Amino acid sequence: MSKVENGDEHDNFYHCEENETKETCNKCEVAKFRYPDGTVRLRNPHIELMDQDILYHLALGSGSHDLVEMFGDVKFVCMGGTPKRMEAFAYYIMKEIGHKLPTGTTLQDISQYSYRYSMFKVGPVLSVSHGMGIPSIGILLHEIIKLMYHSKARDPIFFRIGTCGGIGLEGGTVVISDDAVDEMGNHYYQVPMLGKPVRRPAKLDKRLVRELKGLADPEDPYDTIIGTTMCANDFYEGQGRTDGAFCDYTESEKMEYLTGLQSNGVKNIEMEVIPFAALTHHAGIRAAVVCVALLDRLKGDQVCAPKEVLDEWQIRPQKLVARYIRRYLQTKGRISFDGHGSMAVKSPRRFKLVQQESETFD
């Protein structure tokens, strides 16, 4: 697949190569859900009819905040489970891309009044926590995708940076997901809507996967592999663990299940890839998942590595994503962006109301 020579720099103008069809070309899928300038086209006609769109769980609103001013230059949205991890990533990526905060300022948690997620902006990079599990990341994705729409960000790329349990992998191995399945082996995200099940394909950007793998350094003292990731809806029984409060299967039955996953190409298990892949694909947003295995599930259920080892392992996916971001900005000739996530308020009254709504909304 190669870029069309039309003078436009945006990533959504592509045509298919000989071995790709319009049905399989992810770039063509992306282009269908973008405006010609690369901004996100929402698949919800109701939003444009609203007086303002309150992003409850981010403590932001389209009528209260100048979202174009605050987030219009965002190119990368990086997500991880905990606020602490994503704050650390914000500082790490700041150093990696050479971004400087204005004198007298510090990184600000933009969503501090939501008490649900944390969000930090470092130039073109948005670092945000997604919590744990399918419902939590699903809520965040709806609002982050709407945020990209309201801010008119062009061709954003989403990354999930996280941890996982490996299957037949040593602890510390980095896994780039090229496919996603649920506990039943389904390649889709099923959501009940109006009493009926709706299935959305869970697809990740194949080209992005290849580009990330190409940035793995042969000198890295660990392996970086590509493989299928299973998304579980539970940490214990849903992942076949025997150390939960309940367990109605034997150790041998657990091992039979895990080795069956391994024989089907599953490399790791986590709890967010299915909605992440499905909702970004449905929005026409390029996305990838990079996780580090904290243990080999074929050897046990509990994470026993020392804290200092775990801390170093958790930086490994961040390093790979940072390499991608740094290379992209260097290629585009943009290594530093203005702005550092400070508030841009359009309506003080609505700003206060949004804060109050986010603080009280359950």
From TrEMBL:
One of its GO terms (biological process) is uridine catabolic process. Phosphate binds at R116, R160, I161, G162, T163. GO terms for cellular component: cytosol. It comes from the Eukaryota. Substrate binds at Q239, R241. GO terms for molecular function: uridine phosphorylase activity. Residues 75-326 form the Nucleoside phosphorylase domain. InterPro entries: Nucleoside_phosphorylase_d (IPR000845), Nucleoside_phosphorylase_sf (IPR035994), Uridine_phosphorylase_euk (IPR010059). Belongs to the PNP/UDP phosphorylase family. PANTHER family: FI09636P-RELATED, URIDINE PHOSPHORYLASE. This is Uridine phosphorylase 1-like Protein. It comes from Tribolium castaneum (Red flour beetle).
